[in-house]
Design brief:
This protein has 323 residues and is of the alpha/beta class. 48% of the residues lie in helices and 11% in strands. Helix 4 (48-56) crosses helix 10, helix 9 packs across helix 14 (295-322) and helix 10 packs across helix 14 (295-322).
């Protein structure tokens, strides 16, 4: 009897050892995936690509357990449509000398590319024609190039204002997503609009900086990315304290202030993402500031992010089925 039990145990052990690894094991052994952001200051502010990659690391839809590596390409103040202009070479970060955004996509084949789709740009701001068609056409061109290289485009819906232009811009961005069969869409501007309606006293931006997400807006954007890229409820999943940049940081004026700033920057140890960014960003990075959101506000913002993202995904699905 004892011998038969021992033989049975040995058979079970042999079966387990020879079995195919589980899906989780196979995914965990996969090489890292690049999450490349294309955009300007509202994208790179607060080292957002790095922080977004952190919260979805190991949880990305279809790639559970896989390392997510952040990168960014672009320049300050520009619509991403300019990367499609013939001869454009005014990049500030993310490309090799002589390389264009489309070259980078074709040569480096990033797994996922986040495209900064901005309400005011699709409404015609920064567009020579004033129509917004150039933004839409460039984004479509990028989506085609990303898929041709084996990757998947992601929309980062942006628009921090409260005007009707933002409302119409969001509609145009949604239509653009439908035309390009976008599956991954972080509806940050839509989430901001809901917060503006429901909690107008909740400041998503710094009072001295209307161009970039504020500390609370940063948290809401992270929650939207978590919901969009993991497919999971973000409630309770995000850190309540997170790195941020200072807003309206005054320029060092005196010799003493300049020396202090230089010493702080010299002592700053950047990580792999930060090390690839322009040196002028070190002024903000080296401050090493953090923001903390209280539990009630965090839960509210995570709920808004989840419900907004879920509704957006359902709308995309219905629009696709109706075509």
């Amino acid at each position: 009897m004892k011998a038969s039990i021992l033989i049975g145990i040995l058979i079970v052990m042999q079966t387990l050892l020879s079995a195919e690894p589980s899906e989780q094991t196979r995914v965990s052994a996969s090489p890292p995936l690049t999450l490349l952001f294309a955009g300007s200051s509202s994208t790179y502010w607060n080292d957002f690509p790095r922080e977004a990659a952190k919260v979805v690391d190991g949880k990305f839809i279809g790639h559970v357990g896989t390392k997510i590596v952040p990168e960014i390409v672009g320049r300050s103040g520009s619509d991403i449509r300019v990367y499609a202009e013939p001869g454009f070479n005014k990049y500030e970060y993310g490309v090799k000398p002589g390389q264009t955004f489309l070259d980078k996509i074709r040569e480096e084949k990033p797994s996922f590319v986040v495209l900064q789709t901005v309400c005011r740009f699709i409404m015609g701001d920064d567009d020579p024609t004033g129509t917004g068609n150039a933004h839409a056409e460039a984004v479509t061109k990028y989506c085609e190039a990303i898929r041709a290289a084996g990757g998947e485009p992601i929309f980062y819906e942006m628009g921090w204002g409260k005007s009707e232009r933002e409302t119409e811009g969001r509609k145009r961005i949604f239509d653009l997503a439908v035309r390009n069969k976008i599956r991954l869409f972080a509806p940050c501007s839509t989430a901001w609009a809901r917060v503006y309606r429901e909690r107008p006293a909740l400041a998503l931006q710094h009072p001295k900086d209307s161009a970039h997400p504020g500390d609370t807006g940063m948290f809401l954007n992270l929650a939207c990315f978590y919901a969009a890229l993991t497919g999971e409820w973000p409630i309770g999943k995000l850190p309540r304290t997170y790195p941020v940049w200072p807003h309206a940081l005054p320029k060092a004026a005196t010799d003493a202030e300049k020396a202090t700033e230089a010493a702080r920057i010299a002592a700053f140890k950047s990580d792999a993402y930060q090390a690839k960014m322009p040196k002028w960003m070190l002024k903000n990075m080296s401050m090493k500031l953090t923001a903390t959101v209280d539990a009630a506000t965090a839960t509210y913002l995570e709920t808004v992010a989840w419900e907004t993202t879920h509704e957006l995904q359902q709308n995309l699905k219905r629009a696709e089925e109706a075509k």
